[in-house]
Amino acid sequence: MASRPMTRAHLHAPGSDRFRTRAAALLVLLLAVTAVLWAGRHPQPTTAAWTDAVHAQGQVDIAVAGTATDVVAGQDFSCVLVSGQVWCSGDNSAGQLGTGDTTSSDVFVGPVRGALQDRTVTHLDAGASHTCAATDDGVYCWGLNDHGQLGVPDVAGSSVPVRVASQLGSVTGIELRGNSSCVVAGGKGYCWGETHTSAGSVAAPVVISGGALPASATVTDIGVGEASGCLTADGIPYCWGENGRGQLGDGTTTTSLVPVQVVTTGPMSGFAVGDVSVGQNFACAVGSGPNDAERTFCWGDNSKKQLGQSSDGAQVGLSNVPLQVRGPLTEISVRSVDLGGMTACAITTGADGYCWGDNADGQAGVGYDESWVQTVVDRPSEITTGQMDIDQFATVDVDSNHACGMSTAGSVYCWGSNAQGQLGIEGGPAAAPKKYRPWPVLQTWSAWG
């Protein structure tokens, strides 16, 4: 993921009360000047955003500018990647915003510093109460560490990034969910925290191996959920973990602590799988098949219609083998799929966004307001953009109660629950408890002159 050079100016101080008083006065002055310079052209930063950016060491960024390149949704918080740096909004009770404290924020604050200072982040994801970022020299995590999900032992958590102890090589993908962290590095899949393997919960990466997964296989993607994980290797999906709802896709409901091969006959016959994602007791994958068709397949629990079967088709409680997602996506090629909780979202090759499954908090993004919303979306439905200027989606990331997406122009939008300020809307839940369709976040990173 490319990044652009960034111009910076810092204020340094020993942390005295006198300095903080002067710094606060200077911030008010800078904010006033910025409002004049940027009025009518860019969203303006709030005083809260400026204040929250003052770190304990007396530093404040006053020249951060750039276009977003990724956005991710954790549980009750969100993070965005801008010019190789991380900004976060929402719940911070475990330090998952990376600000060095546990103060929550209803606007995106940052950039995350500490061990990430002067490093360029290439991959980013968020879990239940932790965040991880990959750079060219390692993986760094912050937040809660009660299951070892930060990749370091003997600490309860960290509100600033800590480096994962093991050397993993060049990371090409990263996936967090719940209390689990996983990456693809050097053609292998690694997980730490809750691994869903015989290793249990560990504070150091373990390679996902054994079972049906050939030792020589090259892993290209990995996904992890609350109780299971999946990866793709040489075009074939493999899963491991709990299987009570058929979420391993191997035709059984038997738990396996080593990878089993997902059934690739039937609807998935002739398709080579690339992208894979895991939610709460279900999984989905994108396969490339005949005539360059890119189709989506899901398996596991279907209690919230998250397998994407249209209402005029067979409605099943679960499926322990892959089913092709139907409805509008029956004949539309899909580029990527992402799952969170019991909700699934996909982006087509034409850059349109579709979601289905649980929509109790509006996380499927297919409504306008509380007067018109389906709590369960039983087939893939196009994300409602309304008056938002979203011609194309570059990415969509969904968690259990909210989702965020980025347009191809680099604008960031979030929707669903805003109970902890995770949508990045000034005023937090008091101003907007929920949004049932994409809503622009306050892009403080692009407004600071």
User: How many angstroms separate the termini?
Assistant: 24 Å
Shape: globular
Major sheet: 4 strands, antiparallel
Proportion of strand residues: 35-45%
| Strand element count | 28
**Mean of all residue-level pLDDT scores:** 86
Q: What is the radius of gyration computed over CA atoms, rounded to a whole number of angstroms?
A: 21 Å
Helix content: under 10%
Write a concise synopsis of the structure shown.
It holds the Pfam family RCC1_2. By secondary structure, the protein is mainly beta.
Describe this structure in words.
It comes from Oerskovia jenensis. This is Alpha-tubulin suppressor-like RCC1 family protein. InterPro entries: Ran_GTPase-activating (IPR051553), RCC1/BLIP-II (IPR009091), Reg_chr_condens (IPR000408). With 449 residues, this protein is mainly beta. Helix content is 8%, strand content 40%. It has four helices and 28 strands. The strands form seven sheets. It has a four-stranded antiparallel beta sheet. A hairpin with a 2-residue loop joins strand 14 and strand 15 (236-241). The protein is globular. The chain starts with 16 loop residues before the first helix and ends with a helix.
Provide the descriptors you would attach to this structure in a database record:
globular, four-stranded antiparallel β-sheet, 449 residues, 4 helices, RCC1/BLIP-II, 40% strand, mainly beta, Alpha-tubulin suppressor-like RCC1 family protein, disordered N terminus, Ran_GTPase-activating
